[in-house]
What does this fold into?
Amino acid sequence: MRSHLEFRSGALRDPPATALRGELLARQLMIGLPAQGYRIKNVVAEDWGWCVAVDNPGFALWIGCGALVGHDDGHLCFIHPSKPRLWTWMGRVDARETVDRLASALESCIRRSGVAHHLRWWSEEEVKAGRR
It folds into this structure.
């Protein structure tokens, strides 16, 4: 299941004085995802970067935007949930189709920006290991 997308883009790099990386990327997704049929609930700063909350009935769905360690122009987007099945108050839910659709929309937004290169989805092993 695709959940972690890394890429490089100097154009989406936040200014050097910015405490949290990923704001420009989150703002780009806030504009691009509605064109893909998604409704954005909100965009908020977190301690690890920026969160783009997507309206989704049934379970929480969001994209985290942050820095890709080791590259000044590196970015990482990660979709929550990153596991195929999850438990909600309604019971066990299969999230694969919803996450896969969002993954396709995310990749499309990044590619359509025209400023990203070296796009790569992490393998499930990398996701589990935190790609250290």
